[in-house]
Amino acid sequence: MSNHVYKQLELTGSSATSSDDAVQRAIAKASETVRNIQWFEVTETRGHVKDGKIAHWQVTLKVGFTLE
After folding, report:
1. CA separation for the pair 42, 66 (Å, rounded)
2. Cβ neighbours for 25, distance < 8 A, ≥ 6 positions apart
3. Closest C-alpha among 31, 30, 39, 45 to residue 64
4. Tell me: the pLDDT tens digits for 15-40?
5. CA-closest candidate to residue 40, choices 57, 59, 67
């Protein structure tokens, strides 16, 4: 294993489908401008309820990437 230095970003993704989809969307969007994303950690999950059903998911996560 190589020695690396990591930097972390905090992101919040949202989705009407699922918490997993919210995470996927956040990472996909960050990947458009951030190189070398290596890991993520979900720090908070919350949502919106409408008429007794989950209407929207919102997930906050930390994303780690290696510095070049």
Report:
1. 19
2. 13, 14, 15
3. 39
4. 999 999 999 999 999 999 999 999 99
5. 59
CA-based nearest residue to 44, from 29, 28, 61, 57 = 61
Which tokens is 45 given? 């999950």
CA distance 39 to 33: 16
pTM of the predicted model, to two decimals?
0.88
User: What φ, ψ does residue 16 adopt, rounded to 5°?
Assistant: -85, -10
- Tell me how far CA of residue 18 lies from CA of 26, 28, 31, 59, in angstroms: 13, 15, 20, 10
Q: Which residues are CB-neighbours of 38 under 8 A, at least 6 positions away?
A: 4, 6, 64, 65, 66
